[in-house]
């Protein structure tokens, strides 16, 4: 059994919560309040800046050129394709690029990105990949699911988001991360696999908190 199959079993209850979260459901139905999406988009941009740094750290920690190249491709795709979707949305909302970059991270954004960066900086290469895999994997699953809803891909506001995350290219980046973790987990003792599983499930749970944070536009107590 591949390590990712074992993870797939463990993550089911959390994914179910993610897929049925009102933010995701309403985005698919096209009824999500654009103000919630605007809030999400800004926070997600901040998230992606740090997420991209995980790929850069992966390139530093890679044991061979083949893996280094994968990380460099992932870094490039995140900064140039995924983040460009956010920049286009920001422009539609009248938010400038510097406003985007300089926005304040919400508590959940900060906790999530710092947990990922901590795992990436202090852990092994496998721990780094375990931290980032839920991001790509769960978005791909959500993207595919929403793309099957009639007319969802053509929605004026949410269509581009669904198109990006259900795309073949995004699926390929998720698959790279899955294959990489399977490769790095091969032959590892159970104790290390449990540590990878722990990190993986924590960032999977953070994915839920991120949807919830966006839906409720959660900020710091005195900034509400
Ligand atoms: C919070 C979050 N998780 C995953 C992705 C996919 O890269 C994203 N853009 N944002």
Automatic annotation (TrEMBL):
User: Per its UniProt record, what SUPFAM superfamilies does this chain match?
Assistant: Heme oxygenase-like
Keywords of the record? Hydrolase, Thiamine biosynthesis
Cellular component terms per the entry's GO annotation: cytosol
Q: In which pathway does it act?
A: Cofactor biosynthesis; thiamine diphosphate biosynthesis
Q: Name one Pfam family in it.
A: TENA_THI-4
| Reactions this protein catalyses | thiamine + H2O = 5-(2-hydroxyethyl)-4-methylthiazole + 4-amino-5-hydroxymethyl-2-methylpyrimidine + H(+); 4-amino-5-aminomethyl-2-methylpyrimidine + H2O = 4-amino-5-hydroxymethyl-2-methylpyrimidine + NH4(+)
- Annotated GO MF terms: thiaminase activity
Specify whether RNA-binding is a keyword of the entry: no
- Domain spans labelled Thiaminase-2/PQQC: 9-216
List its EC numbers: 3.5.99.2
The EC category is hydrolase
- According to its UniProt record, which residues of this chain constitute the active site? 207 (proton donor)
Please give the biological process terms from Gene Ontology that the record holds.
thiamine biosynthetic process; thiamine diphosphate biosynthetic process
Q: What does this protein do?
A: Catalyzes an amino-pyrimidine hydrolysis reaction at the C5' of the pyrimidine moiety of thiamine compounds, a reaction that is part of a thiamine salvage pathway. Thus, catalyzes the conversion of 4-amino-5-aminomethyl-2-methylpyrimidine to 4-amino-5-hydroxymethyl-2-methylpyrimidine (HMP).
So what family is this one in?
Belongs to the TenA family.
The subunit field of the Swiss-Prot or TrEMBL record says: Homotetramer.
Report what the protein is called.
Answer: Aminopyrimidine aminohydrolase
Species this protein is from: Niallia endozanthoxylica
């Amino acid at each position: 059994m591949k390590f990712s199959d074992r993870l797939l079993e463990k993550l089911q209850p959390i994914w179910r919560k993610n897929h049925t979260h009102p933010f995701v459901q309403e985005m698919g139905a096209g009824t999500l309040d654009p103000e919630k999406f605007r809030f999400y988009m800004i926070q997600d941009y901040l998230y992606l800046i740090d997420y991209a740094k995980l790929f850069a750290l992966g390139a530093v920690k890679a044991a061979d050129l083949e893996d280094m190249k994968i990380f460099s491709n992932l870094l490039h795709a995140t900064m140039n394709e995924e983040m460009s979707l956010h920049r286009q949305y920001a422009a539609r909302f009248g938010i400038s690029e510097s406003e985007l970059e300089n926005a304040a991270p919400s508590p959940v954004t900060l906790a999530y990105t710092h947990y990922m960066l901590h795992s990436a900086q202090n852990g092994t290469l496998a721990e780094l990949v375990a931290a980032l895999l839920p991001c790509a994997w769960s978005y791909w699953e959500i993207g595919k699911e929403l793309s099957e809803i009639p007319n969802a891909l053509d929605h004026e506001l949410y269509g581009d988001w669904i198109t990006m995350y259900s795309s073949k290219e995004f699926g390929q980046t998720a698959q790279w991360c899955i294959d990489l973790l399977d490769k790095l987990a091969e032959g590892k003792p159970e104790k290390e696999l449990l540590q990878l599983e722990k990190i993986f499930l924590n960032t999977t749970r953070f994915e839920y908190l991120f949807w919830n944070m966006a839906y409720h536009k959660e900020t710091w107590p005195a900034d509400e």
